[in-house]
Amino acid sequence: MLRVRCLRGGSRGAEAAHLIGAMLGRAVTGWVQRAFQSTSSAGAAQMQHVVEVEHVTEPVLQECPVCSYNEWDPLEEVIVGRAENAQVPPFTVEVKANTYEKYWPFYQKHGGQSFPADHLNKAVAEIEEMCNILRHEGVNVRRPEPINWSLEYKTPDFTSSGMYAAMPRDILMVVGNEIIEAPMAWRARFFEYRAYRPLIKEYFSKGAKWTTAPKPTMADELYDQDYPIRTVEDRHKLAAEGKFVTTEHEPCFDAADFIRAGRDLFVQRSQVTNYMGIEWMRRHLAPDYKIHIISFKDPNPMHIDATFNIIGPGLVLSNPDRPCRQVDMFKKAGWTIVKPPTPLIPDDHPLWMSSKWLSMNVLMLDEKRVMVDANESTIHKMFENLGIKTVKVNIRHANSLGGGFHCWTTDVRRRGTLQSYFH
């Protein structure tokens, strides 16, 4: 049985057709040569030979299990992260720059140790229920491997312990039939890729492309060791001046600083994504895809999807507290800009690694269904007004680990084609 890998979309579809034709051509040519070389002309033997060759050359098209071009096509398969064994990262300069001052004592006390056990157990249970609901909605759910993140490791440049495999959106990006492993920027996340390697190898064996971006050394030169952050005002000033804790020493980026809309991807320079990382992505994806750099009035830029979350063709949630400086180019392109309501999460709920705006960090199951926080009644109303059905799930304790539904997932396969939505 001849098995042919199917490459979807654009020139890759033509490549697949060419591959099939070439392989069938070679098979038929071989049969003809063998037929003429045969000195045995028994009718039954000839018929048996023909049947055998026809069986060998019958093409079976195998669907590539990885294919996603945007954030809203019908979701068929998704990776959901794990809270098991999650560790508080050591309180290094890059962690300090990405967290709020009110939580610095927590990091100083618990860095390198497990998150509070009771809180972590509740987060694990919430994510299990989230997986069950995704399956109920017709989505195939995959999970990373459970790993002991407490082990200390040492490279020639630094020593650290690990963190978690909770947020696949940070490390994995799917563009078409390609899985891209992001290099990351936190030392505590240096070996996070290990939890996903069995899954990626499986997808690769079934026809997906697999690219690992250049792994940074994460030497001291990658970070501004004297990054002067004490107050929110400091953060606003530094961000306005284009100063971040990561330097341009080597490429680094988190995949969650990119958001996809077909042939156009939008990215921000942030505390974990530098211009060298953005340039690497631009060159890697050209000429089929275009990278647009956008920025926001954000004192702590890290991951774009709780600031600017594209939820449909020409439809984007834009955080009113962090306005986009390039919003006019989206309006000129005919996009609809929706400002989500103020989050309802209580002030006393711990958000060690994020802001309350995880309320807009939603996962689109298709253009008319969205997975959203069960507690955020005002955003439910917003989606209803947009004609989008809400699939409500409670992950409040999981939020504390730094992500909403979009962060906790990476969509592996969405049913759709490569299109342009930004003109």
Automatic annotation (TrEMBL):
Gene Ontology CC annotation, any one:
mitochondrial intermembrane space
Q: What is its EC number?
A: 2.1.4.1
- Enzyme class label: transferase
Q: Which SUPFAM superfamilies match?
A: Pentein
Gene3D superfamilies reported in the protein's UniProt record: L-arginine/glycine Amidinotransferase, Chain A
Subcellular location as annotated: Mitochondrion inner membrane
- Database matches in InterPro entries: AmidinoTrfase
Give start-end ranges for the coiled-coil region(s): none
A Gene Ontology molecular-function term? glycine amidinotransferase activity
- What domain of life does the native source organism fall in? Eukaryota
What positions does UniProt annotate as the active site of this protein?
Answer: 254, 303, 407
Q: In which pathway does it act?
A: Amine and polyamine biosynthesis; creatine biosynthesis; creatine from L-arginine and glycine: step 1/2
What are the UniProt keywords, alphabetically? Membrane, Mitochondrion, Mitochondrion inner membrane, Transferase, Transit peptide
Q: How does it assemble?
A: Homodimer.
What family is it from?
Belongs to the amidinotransferase family.
Supply the name of the protein. Glycine amidinotransferase
| Protein's organism | Seriola lalandi dorsalis
